[in-house]
Design goal:
By secondary structure, the chain is mostly helical. It has a single domain, classed as Rhodopsin 7-helix transmembrane proteins (Rhopdopsin 7-helix transmembrane proteins, Up-down Bundle). It has helices at about 5-40, 55-80, 90-125, 135-170, 195-225, 230-255, 265-330, 340-345; strands at about 180-185, 190-195, 350-355, 360-370. The strands form two sheets. The protein has a two-stranded antiparallel sheet with strand order 1-2. A two-stranded antiparallel ribbon has the order 3-4.
Length: about 400
């Protein structure tokens, strides 16, 4: 096996690996979206998060567009290896038809729709209440297909009517301007898919217009976002999606001067595939996975906050109950004339006995509570004092 042939097959295997990773991550995101949608529809405490779940249908549509693009890339790999082992069941005419369908499907439908969906999902963050309505998903899907329709129609026209136009009016034009198929040098029954230059040019014009709008949209979002983490996400998304898609188109344009069986063609096509793979992966991660994850994290933070408030309320209730119990205890510890000082000391009170001028001890005494004067230790309306002087006993009158 020639060295270049081995390198071409290695690039094909790596492409299949990347496609598998993207498909698995897309399936996980779809299940994640469905789980979050069921929570917001009927889960207790998740209804308030319905705003973040508004564009869930468009997010799933974006993943389905990615699956369609991956399928096209796999089909393309089956026709560029040039060994014919996978193509023996198909005639050259059918292989040529498959290559034409791949060019129209990928360059005219999948890639423009993916780029448009990223733009519309990013634009949805500027709307205050539009994404709350289920009609937004239907309208956005219609806008995506409507904006993609001119590119799709032009690609279809170039692929179907291009060969007839070349024979009739542009016979001197090189074949790589219009033809999406090249014949294998080793086996004349094997058709190899290529990228027509006019199709790449049309897609490039579309990418330039949409990239300009995406930069303007990212600037508006950055002017409104005050969270640094969200600003970083917007920067990553804009500066990943905006240059990578035009770079892929540029690399595909460079492939027109090389043969599909040679390593330069495969290398350019593979690098262009990696650029758009990063573009789709960044969009899927930033616009599909992270919003759902952040919404669920917000719900968990809210639950923790409610639990903390409940615990604080319970602690305050326990404190109030303790104070009330202490007040009831203090109310039972009142002054009682006629009791001895030992009994008063057992109740936690201090007794003071009055003495007259002759040094004789009087019979009356006042008990001062250790905590506070009780309602029975002073007449109603009197100030709460820790002690007050006793009136001296009235001298006995003679007969």
């Amino acid at each position: 096996m020639p060295h270049s042939r081995f390198a071409v097959d290695a690039l094909g295997v790596i492409t299949l690996l990347f496609v598998s990773i993207l498909v698995l991550f897309g399936l996980f995101c779809i299940l994640y979206l469905i789980y979050f949608h069921t929570k917001t529809r009927g889960g207790q405490g998740y209804v308030q998060l319905g705003y973040f779940n508004g564009p869930w249908i468009i997010r799933i549509t974006f993943i389905l567009f990615a699956f369609w693009w991956c399928f096209g890339e796999v089909v393309r790999l089956n026709f560029i290896r040039g060994d014919g082992r996978l193509l023996n069941a198909l005639s050259f005419k059918w292989q040529e038809t498959v290559c034409k369908c791949y060019v129209v499907s990928s360059l005219g439908f999948a890639e423009p729709c993916l780029y448009l969906t990223i733009v519309f999902l990013l634009r949805a963050s500027l709307q205050k209440s539009g994404t709350l309505s289920q009609k937004w998903n239907g309208k956005t899907a219609g806008y995506i297909l409507l904006c993609c329709l001119p590119v799709f129609a032009l690609q279809l026209l170039l692929i179907l009517a291009g060969p007839q136009l070349k024979k009739a009016h542009m016979s001197s034009m090189p074949h790589y301007f219009i033809s999406p198929v090249a014949q294998s040098k080793d086996d004349i029954d094997v058709a190899l898919c290529t990228y027509p230059l006019l199709s790449i040019f049309c897609l490039g014009l579309f990418a330039i217009m949409l990239t300009s709008y995406l930069f303007w949209l990212g600037g508006r979002i950055l002017s409104l976002v005050i969270n640094r983490s969200l600003q970083k996400r917007v920067y990553i998304l804009v500066f990943t999606v905006s240059p990578f898609f035009p770079l892929r188109i540029l690399l595909l344009g460079l492939t027109v001067r090389t043969h599909p069986e040679h390593l330069p063609f495969q290398a350019l096509a593979f690098v262009g595939f990696v650029f758009f793979f990063c573009c789709i992966g960044a969009g899927m991660y930033m616009l599909v996975f992270l919003p759902v994850r952040d919404s669920l994290a917000l719900k968990k933070c809210s639950e923790r906050d409610i639990e903390a408030r409940r615990r604080l309320s319970d602690e305050q209730t326990d404190t109030v109950s303790l104070i009330a119990n202490q007040s009831n205890l203090e109310g039972s510890m009142v002054s009682s004339p006629g009791r001895n000082s030992a009994a008063s000391t057992k109740r936690g009170s201090i007794s003071f006995r009055t003495t007259d001028k002759e040094g004789t001890s009087g019979a009356a005494f006042v008990e001062l509570s250790v905590f506070s004067p009780s309602q029975h230790s002073s007449p109603p309306g009197s100030p709460q004092l820790l002690g007050w002087p006793m009136l001296p006993p009235t001298p006995a009158q003679g007969p």
